[in-house]
Amino acid sequence: MDSVLGATITAGTVTNILNGTITSVLGATITAGTLSSAGTVTNILNGTITSVLGATITAGTLSSAGTVTNILNGTITSVLGATITAGTLSSAGTVTNILNGTITSVLGATITAGTLSSVTSISQRSFIEQSTLGVATTNVLTPLPAITTSVLGTYSFFIQNTGANPVNTQLQISADGTNYYVDTNGDNPLAAGAIDVLVPSRFLKYTRVAYVSANPATTSTINVIFNAQGT
User: Fold this and answer.
1) Are 198 and 185 in contact (CB under 8 A)?
2) Does position 52 have pLDDT exceeding 70, yes or no?
3) What is the pTM for the complete model shown?
């Protein structure tokens, strides 16, 4: 059909379209071809939908959409500003880009970019590591930069004395990033070549390691490695 003006197709089945384009169809079943704009499409075989507003897609490929309420056995390659309000995405390869979108239920999907603001459960926790190596100690108690631990479930500090003299270490915690409380002291004095692991006993928003030479007249060096898992 090259051109239809002022017509409404309310029912029927189009079984084969070769090199054709249907610009507007209501209540129809399309088995092949290209559909550029539609209300509700119940079945698509070997077809591509490039733009759908307020439609229900049960099978096929959806490349760009506003709001999709239900998708069964479909693939979404790119959604900009879309909201998926109902249904279950039971099988998905990769959703490559979501901007200002909301997905309410996803099973077996890979999200490579975007922000996930609400999650019921995650099967594999994230891992964080931060290393500060070759830190020189003096006779002045000195803290390392604080780490924001408010969103972390489990975390600890690996301390290695790589110098020639003993050192003392401690964990300090803070709620405001300005005023710090000594939460845990290390296995002091930590001898040259020795290793210790500091784990906080209390929870606050910020956590940091502080260090000092055990003997005021000597210096040493330490490596500090922070390991953490997300909640």
Assistant:
1) no
2) no
3) 0.50
